Amino acid sequence: MINFNEQNNVFTLETKNTTYAIGLLENSLLVHLYWGKKLNNAINENWNNDFTWRSHSPFDYGKYSTNALPLEFSAYGGGDSRTASFSALYNDGSRVSKYYYKGYEIIKGKPEITGLPSTYAESGDKVETLVINLYDELKKVNVYLNYSVFEEYDVITRNIKVVNGGETLKLHTVLSAMTDFFGCDDMDIIHLDGAWARERYVTRQRIVPGNQNIKSQIGISSSYHNPFIAICDKNTTENTGDAYGFNLVYSGNFTAGAERNPYGTIRTYIGINPNEFEWVLETNQSFETPEAILVYSDKGLSGMSRIFHKIIRTRLCRGKFRDIERYALINNWEATYFNFNEDKIVKIAQKAKQIGVDTMVLDDGWFGRRTDDTRGLGDFVEMPDRLPNGLSGLAKRINDLGMHFGLWFEPEMVNPDSELFEKHPDWIIHTNGRTPSKIRHQYTLDLSRKDVCDYIIDCVGGILKRANIEYVKWDMNRQMSEVGSAMLPAERQGEVMHRYMLGLYYVFETLTKEFPNVLFEACASGGARYDGGILHYMPQVWTSDDTDAVERIKIQYGTSFVYPYSTMGAHVSACPNHQNGRTTPFEMRCNVAICGQFGFELDLNKCTDEELETAKKAVQNYRRLGEIFHKGDLYRLRSPFESLMAVNEFISEDKNTVLVCIYPHSTVTAGYDEYIKLSGLDENALYELNGKSYGGDYLMNKGIHIINDYEYKTKILELKKQ
Length: 722
Ligand code: DGJ
Hints:
Elements: E1 2-5, E2 10-14, E3 18-24, E4 30-37, H1 49-52, E5 86-90, E6 100-108, E7 127-136, E8 141-150, E9 155-164, E10 169-182, E11 187-193, E12 201-206, E13 210-215, E14 228-233, E15 243-249, E16 254-260, E17 265-272, E18 279-281, E19 286-288, E20 291-297, H2 300-315, E21 329-331, H3 333-336, H4 342-354, E22 359-362, H5 390-400, E23 404-409, E24 413-414, H6 419-423, E25 443-444, H7 450-466, E26 471-474, H8 496-514, E27 519-522, H9 532-535, E28 540-542, H10 549-559, E29 568-573, H11 586-593, E30 597-601, H12 609-631, E31 633-638, E32 645-651, E33 657-664, E34 672-676, E35 686-689, E36 692-695, H13 696-701, E37 704-708, E38 715-721
Parallel strand pairs: 21-22, 21-30, 22-23, 23-26, 26-27, 27-28, 28-29, 29-30
Antiparallel strand pairs: 1-2, 2-3, 3-4, 5-10, 6-7, 7-8, 8-9, 9-19, 9-20, 10-17, 10-18, 11-12, 11-14, 13-16, 14-15, 15-20, 16-17, 24-25, 31-32, 32-33, 33-38, 34-37, 35-36, 35-38
This protein binds (2R,3S,4R,5S)-2-(hydroxymethyl)piperidine-3,4,5-triol.
C-alpha cells in the first residue's frame, strides 16, 4: 500500500482505485508527482527531468526552482513565493525556515492525533501511515509529514507534527496539507459558502492566476465557508471526470484555497488559519495540526462525495449511534419558542407519539431567568414556573408515553444577565481594555481555560445524571470577537482560538465517553459549525435554522458534497415558514426532510387530519427507507442551483433498492415531459417501478419519464432490482 522505491526515490501511496506519488529530489525536497487513477507501473525513473529545465532561480536548493516546483511542504523563506505551509518566528528575529529530508517510516494502522478529532482504523482495516521526517538543521526543528492511507476507502489523510529540538520559537503557519498540481492551470475550484439560514451553497469558479482563498477567522468553522474545497477539471460533472476533495477535520479558524502560479501549477492547501494563530513552542515541545481528509475520484463530484460520506460516516463518526437507526424526534422550538410549560410540552409529545415519533426534545428556555434570549444563559437550573417537577418530572412524563426525552443546552455561552457571569466575569473571551461585544446578547465562555471546561463538564454531566435525558442538542450561537484570555500571558494570546478548540474537544470527549447512551446533535445558529471535528463526537448536526423546504433542498444538496445525509438533522416545520414566509405543501416538507435525520419542528396539534396522515406515513417511510438515505450511495442527478427541478438518487448498500427524490422547487411549465437519466445501476438488470419493468441500461441512457406538472409536487420513486 505504501512503498518507497529506492531506485527512483519515489514514495507511492496506493488505495484500491488511486495512486498518490511523492518524489524525493536529490536536493532533499519532496515533490508531488501524481495523484489520480491507480497506476499499474512505477513512475518513470527520470521523473526529475520534468523540473530541471527551470533552473533560472534555484535559490539554495540546487538546480531546481523552489518557486515553480510542485511541493508537498513549503516552508517560508526558501524562495517559494506561493502560500507557505509552514512559517515560524525564531528568537533571533528570523522568519526563515529551511527543511531537508531526513528519513521516513511506514507504520501499520494510524496513530491518534493528541487532543484532536481524527479518522481512525478499526481492526481488519487496511490502513498504513507514512511518516516523512524533515529537519531544519540550523533551528533544530523536526517536521513530520503524516500520510495515512485507507486502502479500501480510497482516502488519504494528512497532518503535520512539529517537534522543537532548538530554542523557543513561535509557530505562525502550520497547514495540515498542501498538494501542488504541476502543469494543470485550467481547473475549477468548488467551495461551500453561505450565511445564517443559507449554509453551504455550492460555488464553482475557474481558478484564475493568484490565490483563491476561503477562510474562517471568527472562532467557528462558520456558515460563511465550510472547511472544504474541491478542485476539478473544467469538464468534470456530477458523475464524470476527475475531482479532488480536501476537508479539514476542525471546528475553528481555517484557511483553504487554490493558488495558481505563473508557471502553470496550482497549489492547494488547507489548515488552521495562520492570520489568527501564533503558538509558542518551547524546547522539546511538539505541536500537531488537525487532520485533512484527501479524496480523489474519477467519477465526478458525486463520486468524490460518496468517498467522503463513507469515511466520515464510518471512520470519523464514532460511538453507539454511528451505525444504528436514530430517533424520529419532535422539537418544540418553532412550536413554542420561549412560551411553554410542562403541560404544553407533554401535549406536543402526546400528539407526536400518535404519528409514531419516538423522542420529544425540549429546546431553549427551560432554565434560570431565560424567559427570552437576553438573559439566563449559563444558569442551567430548571425554571420552576415552567418545569414545576424539574427535568426529571418532565422526562418521566415523556418516558411514560413511551418516548425518549431530549434536551437543549448552550454550554459554551453566557448572558451578562446571569448568575454565572455575575460570579465569573473573567470567564469570557475578552481582551484587555476593550468592551467585549455581545452577539445575541451573549458572550463566549473561555474554553481555552481548563477550569471553564471542567465547569461545563460538571454542569452538563450533572444534569444528564439526574434526569433521564437520552438526546442532547448542543447549541452555540455566536462567533468570537475581541479574542483574548485572562489566563494566558501576552505572548500566548495568539493561542486562544486553537486552545478553545482543544478545550471544546476535551469537553466533548469527556461527556460523550461518560454518556455513551446519549445521542448528541450539534447546532450553531443552525449549521454554522458543520464540520468533521464536530462529527467525530456528535454524529448529526442541525443542518440549518432554515426549515423552508425549498431552501433546504439547496442547503442539503451543498452539504452533501462532503457530509452524508446520516449527519443532517432535517425537520418538518409549519407554514408560512418562520424564516422566509414561504408556503409549501406538507408532503414536500416531509419528502425533503426524510433523507436526513428526520423530525418535526412544529405543534402537530395544529395540523389538519390530512397533514397528520401525511406525517404518519412519512415517519413510517423514514423507518423503512432511512437506512438507504443514510448509508446508500448518493448520485446527485440535478442541481437545485442549475435546474428548476433538483433530483437525488440513492442506491441501497445491497444495490437492490433505488430511491429517486424529485424536487421541482421553482416554477415549471405545466405538463412538461422530462426523462431523468439514473446513474450507478446494473446495466444488465431489470428494475421494477410502479409495477412496470425497466432495464438498468435503459434507465441510465434514456431515463425515467416524468411529467413535470406542478411546482413543489415532489416525489420519491422507489425502484426494485428484479
Ligand atoms: C439556535 C438554534 O439554531 C435553534 O434551533 C434554537 O435551538 C435556538 N438557537 C434556541 O435559542
